[in-house]
Amino acid sequence: MMQDRIRRTAARPPAAEAAIPMIAQCPHAAEPGLCEQCKVRSVSVCAALGPDELAELERLAEAAIFAKDEAVVAAGEPASSVYNLTAGSVRLLRLLPDGRRQIVGFLLPGDFVGLSLAERHAFSAEAIEPVRACRFARTAFSSLVDAKPHLLRRLHEAATHELSIAQDHMVLLGRRSAEEKVAAFLVGLRDRLVRLGGSAVTIPLAMTRQDIADYLGLTIETVSRTISRMGRDRVLLVVPDGIRIIDAPRLETLAAS
Amino acid sequence: MMQDRIRRTAARPPAAEAAIPMIAQCPHAAEPGLCEQCKVRSVSVCAALGPDELAELERLAEAAIFAKDEAVVAAGEPASSVYNLTAGSVRLLRLLPDGRRQIVGFLLPGDFVGLSLAERHAFSAEAIEPVRACRFARTAFSSLVDAKPHLLRRLHEAATHELSIAQDHMVLLGRRSAEEKVAAFLVGLRDRLVRLGGSAVTIPLAMTRQDIADYLGLTIETVSRTISRMGRDRVLLVVPDGIRIIDAPRLETLAAS
DNA sequence: CGTCAGCTTGACTCATCTCAACTAGGGTGG
DNA sequence: CCACCCTAGTTGAGATGAGTCAAGCTGACG
Q: Which of A88, A238, A253, B154 gives 20 to 30 Å between its CA and that of B161?
């Protein structure tokens, strides 16, 4: 999925702070059955649904596009919509009052924004690169979930999976060195991308060094130095907009999970 | 709830590593309707159930008791049971292969162990002090959940709430100083205990300094020094088996969430 | 009364942060 | 087309918060 990401250099200047997300012509409305062909369906919560239900879901869906750095949802705001990502990647983050930033996760195609179905989002979500998503009105989606227990069950599975990943990340943040953090980040991202059909060797990094630092609880300088050192040590190669893994076993040992 | 915790000094020597949890005489079997009188019902997932359903749940329940330091569930092991805590507290933890330890959460009465209903637990759970809990066979509980969508919904709410707390904790681990970490821990614990009917001033600390350190991503020495300094600064008072908050506003400012 | 676990304290070390300069690439406007 | 600028990233030098290592304290228990 990352291979089809729009070049960052092609992005238009970021929209103003309060920009309203553009609503694309909804492909679902125009051409029924699109959900069935959806590339990320099998890895999404939608996988819980049968053909009839899928059609029902499709009627609730609306395609949304977000530009790089545009907010998908904002922490504390009423959650009018929930989303299923179909292309691009998103950072989930929390801010401290003084501006310190912690990225609590990166979302890739197939991931869901708004798992809790709660009235307010607990985090902000921002497009790291141009993003496509299926948008659902939260209340409508919630009603559908109430009518389809197996969809709720799937949502619950997704939420507890997220929780497990969050716990892994706590171990990383609390108990790992900078080098281990960077290695674990790269290995983890690689594995997710491979599952989505990507390369096991070349890892496109849509996020900035600052994003990585805020994800790993480090400073940008430490991330940069650590990646540089891994380059010097022939563990990886820094390439434009990403890295290439040279010595996977060594990287995996460092990630030592 | 903490006020009724059994004195640690009264605990018998810890059971052997592989000790089988003692099964108390099940009070539910002996005296129907106990769920109705359960003190933690309103804060538990059980709150989703009506009287009839509660009786149904009660038939699945069995009282379990765990001694201090006894394992409630072990990471990676098949999850034969799930639990609802009724007294005492539990640490949830993950270990790195080399023995580094990260506590990913503390559970108090009303909290649920095994929210995911998955076949294996992703974490270990250990009694910090003598613990009482309702035990349910996982498969039976899972079937009940499948039959009661509103119970599943409640479980899902609990899971997403946990996820939100986990994200808060990531901010703490990744972006806060030792002093902020300790302050946030104390304030957070106090707030939970208050919700369970405890004091807003005296905080019993059933967990050891090492537990706190492993929760906050610090060393035991740093936790000890930080608490000592707060004592010197008249922010709190160290009392046997806990602390007493002297200057709540100052502590809350440090916790600065 | 001795031992032991839990905790505290001190002295010193070091991984990471901070501050600062510098590089590279792309976009823009003259 | 070039000069400039701006953002992202890199690198170095020095500061520091938290870790490490090592005593010592205290209260509970045998």
A: A88
